[in-house]
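pasting input
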Amino acid sequence: MAVFDINKYRQMFLEEAEDIFETIDTLLLEAEDTGDMDNETVNALFRSVHTLKGNSASVELSMFAALAHELEFFMDRLRNGELQFEESMAELLIEGIDTLKQILEMELSETLEESFYQNTKADLLQKIKAFSEDSKEIAELISHEEEKDDFGLLLPIDEEEGFGPLSGETLPLSEEIPESMEEYFGLFDDEVPHEAVLAFEDVFGFFDDLEEVAMSEAKEDTFGFFDEPEVPVAAIVTPSVESDDEHFGFFVDIETKTVQADVVRNIAEPKSGAQAKSSVGEVSSDEGKGSKKFKADTTSNSIRVDLSKIDGLMNNIGELVIAHSMLSQYIYTMEDQKTKSDLSERLELIDRHIRELQESVMSVRMVPMETVFSKFPKVIRDTAKKLDKKIDFRSFGETVEIDKAMIEGLTDPLMHIVRNGLDHGIESPEKRLKAGKPESGTLIMSAEQANGQMIIKIQDDGGGINLAKVTAKALENGVIDEHQASSMSDEEKAMLIFAPGLSTADAVTDISGRGVGMDVVMSNIKKLGGIVKVDTEEGYGSTFTIALPLTLAILDGLNIRVGKEQFILPLSAIIESIKPEEDMIKQIGDNQSEVLMLRNEFIPVVRLHTIFNVEYEHQKLSDGLLIVVRSAAQKIALFVDEFMNQQQFVIKPLDRNFRNARGIGGATVRGDGTIGLIIDTMNILDKNY
Amino acid sequence: MSINESNQLLTFKLGNETYGIQISKVREILTYPTVTPIPDASRWVKGVINLRGEVAPVIDLRVRFNINNDPIYTNRTIIIAVKTQDARMIGLVVDEVSDMENAELDRLYPAPDMGTSIAPEYLKGLFKKEDKMIVILDIDRILDKEEMQRLSRQAPEASHVLSTTA
């Protein structure tokens, strides 16, 4: 029997728990908002908590499971109408779920102290009690709890046996239970007592039959929490989980699952009968139910895959692209025209397939923005509560897809911006009313794809950024000098909030105000190859605009030539390119700096050959070309000798084997097998790089 | 199975001296391909090449240790691709690859303070075979990530025009 590595399963549980917590938060916030909770919501909540309970017990998180049980029990009473939903219940439940999260974290890190746990639990029970009409129920509740502890202890052992025959390492926990039951088909004679075999054969009958038969059978076996016919499994998928699962969930089929869950129960049932141990029977049947419920939340046809595997696949495709272009270059040099055209034709076909393959793999990496957005309502609610502000949060573009690899890097900066917006941007209700604004502040988060970029906007209708204050602070901290301050545009001044160590908050709160954060936002977004912009109007609010490349793996680039060297310029950075006339170039200062006068803008000219220290072909700007690109805080015009072709490049990091270089954002393998360097326009002027 | 793999050396020449590195570090031996120069790199960093799909720097040990400051690169110049302990792929330019030798790495002579072109801190020791002396390089030390990041940047005054290599 395989060694049962609890940590591996705990990790799986943790990942799933995060998803479930998110679902629960969404439901509860909705309930709190509307002050009502319909049956569907109650059912969904109950199921979620139940799943948490069952799964946590199976990974031996007994205290977490026990606490989850309390909440589940409370929800169960809500569900079967023993309790009527009141608005304050939502608050209690939110608090309860927060406590659960806390306990989970502590139990996982093994820092949970018994006394703390007992106090927390007592506290929670006390609050739950307040909603209960008579103490008998409490007594019942406590007796349930004891049962629960058994459950917590017994289940893992039980499950471990179930896991035994199955050694698939990468399967998510949720699949394990039914999968292992499937295994029993083959391993029957050795693994399961004879009675169970018989029982199984009974069940086999139901199998081909209607699912409902199995269901009614299940009803007969019910214990404590099973006092109501279940909603058909397929109907009870919570929306956020579902959409997430489409990409990173589980591959399981609904029907077999349900049936299998019943099989579990039915196998367990006679077994316990034979052993005359009703408690085991209860646990087992509960487990059966647990696994069925578990499935209920994960009904879509998807699979959870480690991102590094997809990266590996992407790398292979990259190699394929390179091999392909090597081949086409070779064909180009062939003499025999007939063979040449025949080969080219076939090669084009391969090219098309490679592109399709590339797109398919890319689409696997993509997840909807909802994965990012769904984290916010809870944070915003909590923060607003702490600050005594009223916030109306809205989000748009949940279905816009984003590279999974970016989500991690994106969530933190967004969180910072939102917290800052809540803390410094949106005013207190009194202040807002005085200013003639609605009492509740509005925070809008939106995502859209435009021009091959992902545009994320965070918009608030708060007080806006006090530019005078920011500028004064920047002067004080030496970020800028007087001269700069006087020549800065409002937009540039607003960008100062991204400078390190700058906070205009008069008081440092635990939400924001330490002056760290916004500079982290900038650097994180830059790391993702994106840019942040802020538009603000005092008294009317601010809008943060984040533009990101759609993916980190492939880039549309323009080949440019400087002297004998070729570089790749990301298309996303290019604004326009011009062949400058002499009168468009102005010299400033000691004739060392050149600026391009384009319409009403002055754009500093950067000679790439100087930056990259390479030979140049043209000395005079009017002989070459200027490409206007976005740089950190401004536009710059890059001076190059020639444009070459435009194509897609597979980005490879330069610092994996070596280090980063100034002005270079990455590398790629060209068709001839050599390395091409990709220019990073963001930090090209950063001398300290 | 008497020969421990890590005791096998690949020997090569840098100038007139014979050097050795553990064969287990070597991934590939290739002839000098087109190398893409890195703009702000020191002279001993020739640039980057594609090594099995990875972007790997090419380092000329002769320039790095002042054995030959103005080497000529032809399509017969040899690069030894090595993989460091921390799994970085790096190409080393050498004058010629000589042979394979078995050496008992735990019975090396300590490197002398003087007499070798490369400072003793970068050496594992000396190995004597008949009348030959092989200097065994500590490749992980030479290619130490932090040291490379620090030293491989071009000093501003030493800036020169990079030329494309054949």
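fyi Residues 6-34 of chain A form the longest helix (29 residues).
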